[in-house]
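pls design
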């Protein structure tokens, strides 16, 4: 649709017509040049001149051509399929093929009137449905949030969610805070009839134990419709020669809805990651026996580390650090002040020096003791710090400051830092944390430093280090140029209702610095010793030359072997001056690894162990929970149907008055003078007049 408007009154067009008519009559009304050759030629010449002048003068009124465009957007309908392992118990064989056909039929029935998207969910929300049912967990709340993030700002019509209603991660979807404005239609899959089943529901245990200590396993056992039968719960330990039975406990099932808790006390007699298998003997008639067995992994440590928080004066940073580090059972925390009597740093494994050395205490005596005993340390420099003494006490950061003025600084994660890895959430969120207070001055990282955080002052990203790690005279050292860690801990809780980002940053920094001194020139680091089966196994590597300077000139090869001797080979990637390797997701079980390289003609190797533990959450719910699906549909104004009624959802969506197309109308305005055909018309009129005059012998 087109519309013509003018920036001047439209009656000015009359003046344009009169101007064109007057101009034409002035030239040709009394002109006798062509009277003998072509008596009517003056009339045609006058018409051409009249049209040209009228159009040109009308263009001076700045006419605008408005174009109206109308677009109809179909409603978006999302088909979401639960891809978790629990779905496979009922959807298999002919039942699965029939369900696939119904699913395709529903998609086809909706495709004509709606924009249809297929989404799978379980471990994560993703495009496309392949009905493989291999995901280890079910997370409905993540699906609701993901759908809202993807389609919430569009003409979102309806969500069709097919599942058995069992979720084992996230919150109850009926209480999701995602502001979905579309109805949710749920497809109830699975069987709600309780089956005969013996189930090791939970095994509570500490992830860490200490060599020589005892630890407890709390085993929850349930049985459904198996009254009067007996089973035996066995606890075994994995060894190189197979399973070694430690304890066996007879259990009598006294009812059809049976539950019992058994406690087992074990000895932590082997350092490293130890695998324990808890199993219950299968009973006749059980629908599923795979949930009668659980494998757990416990990291047995051979010593706890004593950490001293030594401060120049009381400060809220000390409480923030102590609370964060106490979550690691491998640490014992102590707080002392430099003015206390009898401070003995020599009995600690790691020391945090807060605002030390200070203007009143250069700490020279304590530093000499720490250097003699090669105790790693972390300096936290604030407004009480003596930067002259601090510059001499470490070799990671050069500095010029008298702490007379301060800056408010935030932290930006260095993309080239490779000593250990931080989660993407930390890298994304940390630069937004409240600023810390840092002394004003000139600071620069030395070649020995690996900078983890750079300073951001206001909106300016600087190259001044904020948190740097490395070695001073062969001793692990860290330096944080700023005080106010307590603000970061509070801000983390305010934004996320937890302290995960703060705890990860502090925990990994202290873990890296407090590791026992290792003078090997070739080292491999693991983020942890026990990985879940759905997460990637990652490694870091460091190589030092004769001066103990980091280098990554040679390639590093990695060989990983499982318990059956199968070998997986990799090559490390080079990052900065170090190495990194993502070995991907590995099958469940214990592994050994060996990394090798050759530096200056000398072969170097590093060996270690880790384990991948199973995620068996989907095996422990054999009965569908359709009540959750009904709650979800009721909350968002949809309905719940069974799988046999899948195709009826198309009619229900079409009958829903809220699921309608949206019509968008846009207006585009262009000056008429920009139209090329207007220029062509004027050129044609003037050229035609000129041609006729020349043809008949005039100019």
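designed seq:
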């Amino acid at each position: 649709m087109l519309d013509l408007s003018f920036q001047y009154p439209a009656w000015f067009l009359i003046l344009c017509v009169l101007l064109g008519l007057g101009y034409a009559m002035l030239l040709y009304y009394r002109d006798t040049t062509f009277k003998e050759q072509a008596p009517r030629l003056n009339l045609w010449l006058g018409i051409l001149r009249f049209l040209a002048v009228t159009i040109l003068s009308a263009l001076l009124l700045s006419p605008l051509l408005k174009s109206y465009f109308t677009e109809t957007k179909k409603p978006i309908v999302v088909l979401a399929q639960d891809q978790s392992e629990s779905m496979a118990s009922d959807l298999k064989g002919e039942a699965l093929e029939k369900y696939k056909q119904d699913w395709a039929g529903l998609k086809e029935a909706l495709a004509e009137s709606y924009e249809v998207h297929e989404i799978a969910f379980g471990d994560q929300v993703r495009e496309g449905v392949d009905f493989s049912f291999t995901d280890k967990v079910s997370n409905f709340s993540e699906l609701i949030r993901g759908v809202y993030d993807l389609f919430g700002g569009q003409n979102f019509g309806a969500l069709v969610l097919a599942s058995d209603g069992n979720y084992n991660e996230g919150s109850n979807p009926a209480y999701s805070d995602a502001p979905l404005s579309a109805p949710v239609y749920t497809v109830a899959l699975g069987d709600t009839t309780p089956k005969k089943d013996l189930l090791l529901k939970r095994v509570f245990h500490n992830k860490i134990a200490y060599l020589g200590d005892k630890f407890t396993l709390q085993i929850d056992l349930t049985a459904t419709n198996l009254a009067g039968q007996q089973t035996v719960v066995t606890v075994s330990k994995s060894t190189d020669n197979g399973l070694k039975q430690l304890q066996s406990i007879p259990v009598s099932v006294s009812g059809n809805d049976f539950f019992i808790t058994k406690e087992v006390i074990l000895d932590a007699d082997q350092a490293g990651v130890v695998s324990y298998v808890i199993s219950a003997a299968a009973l006749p008639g059980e629908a599923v026996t795979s949930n009668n067995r659980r494998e757990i992994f416990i990291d047995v440590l051979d010593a706890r580390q004593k950490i001293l928080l030594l401060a120049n004066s009381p400060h809220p940073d000390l409480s923030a650090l102590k609370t964060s580090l106490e979550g690691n059972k491998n640490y014992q925390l102590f707080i002392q002040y430099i003015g206390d009597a009898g401070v003995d740093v020599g009995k600690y494994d790691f020391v945090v020096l807060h605002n030390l050395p200070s203007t009143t205490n250069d700490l020279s005596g304590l530093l000499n003791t720490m250097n003699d005993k090669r105790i790693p340390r972390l300096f936290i420099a604030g407004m009480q710090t003596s930067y002259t003494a601090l510059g001499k006490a470490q070799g990671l950061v050069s500095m010029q400051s008298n702490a007379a003025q301060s800056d408010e600084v935030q932290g930006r994660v260095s993309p080239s830092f490779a000593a250990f890895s931080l989660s993407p959430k930390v890298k994304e969120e940390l630069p937004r944390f409240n600023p810390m207070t840092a002394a004003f001055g000139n600071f620069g990282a030395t070649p020995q430093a690996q900078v983890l955080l750079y300073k951001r002052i206001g909106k300016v990203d600087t190259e001044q280090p904020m948190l740097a790690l490395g070695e001073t005279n062969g001793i692990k050292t860290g330096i944080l140029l700023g005080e106010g860690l307590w603000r970061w801990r509070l801000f983390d809780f305010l934004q996320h209702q937890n302290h995960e980002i703060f705890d990860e940053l502090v925990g990994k920094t202290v873990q890296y610095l407090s590791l026992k001194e290792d003078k090997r020139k070739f080292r491999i680091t693991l983020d942890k010793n026990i990985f879940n089966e759905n997460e990637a196994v990652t490694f870091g590597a460091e190589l030092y030359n004769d001066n103990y300077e980091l280098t990554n000139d040679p390639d590093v090869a990695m060989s990983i072997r499982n318990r059956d001797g199968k070998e997986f080979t990799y090559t490390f990637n080079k990052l900065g001056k170090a190495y990194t390797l993502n070995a991907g997701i590995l099958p469940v079980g214990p592994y050994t690894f060996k990394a090798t390289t050759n530096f200056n003609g000398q072969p170097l190797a590093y060996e270690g162990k880790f384990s991948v533990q199973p995620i068996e959450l989907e095996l422990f719910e054999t009965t569908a929970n359709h009540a959750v699906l009904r709650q979800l549909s009721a909350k968002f104004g949809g309905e719940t149907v069974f799988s046999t009624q899948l195709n009826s959802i198309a009619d229900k969506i079409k009958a829903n008055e809220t699921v309608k197309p949206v019509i968008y109308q846009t207006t585009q305005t262009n000056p008429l003078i920009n139209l090329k055909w207007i220029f062509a018309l004027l050129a044609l009129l003037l050229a035609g007049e000129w041609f006729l005059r020349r043809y008949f012998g005039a100019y």
